[in-house]
Design a protein that fits this description.
Elements lengths: L2 E2 L2 H10 L5 H9 L3 E6 L7 E5 L15 E5 L5 E8 L2 E9 L14 E2 L1
Antiparallel strand pairs: 1-2, 2-3, 3-6, 4-5, 4-7, 5-6
Length: 112
């Protein structure tokens, strides 16, 4: 069952997709129409997303990940945004340590 994005996931997506380029702008416009449709089995904060395609157009052609960054805190973590057919489909957080990151770090710690 689909559920709204958390405030922290929304803030992370907004920070990752900041910028004036057409892809970032189009993907940022999709955030209000994105819903969580799945979660990672390891217990981390990674979420599968589905965007209401009738509400917003796809982003221009681009590669995957559409955006990525490392965190300054925690210093062993990174985050990536993936898309499918021009629509946000996955917000993934990962760690170099063996422990999954279960909550979204503050976007101010993102390093691009």
């Amino acid at each position: 069952m689909a559920e709204p994005l958390s405030t922290d996931a929304t803030a992370t997506l907004s920070a990752l997709l900041a910028g004036p380029d057409p892809v970032s702008s189009a993907l940022r416009a999709q955030i209000p129409y994105a819903r969580v449709t799945g979660r990672c089995g390891c217990g981390c904060a990674t979420v599968d997303l589905t965007v209401d395609r009738a509400a917003v157009p796809p982003a221009p052609e681009h590669g995957n990940p559409a955006a990525d960054a490392w965190y300054a805190v925690p210093d062993d973590a990174g985050v990536m945004v993936f898309t499918e057919d021009g629509y946000i489909s996955l917000l993934e957080i990962y760690s170099a340590s063996s422990e999954p990151i279960t909550a979204w770090p503050k976007p101010r710690f993102l390093m691009r």
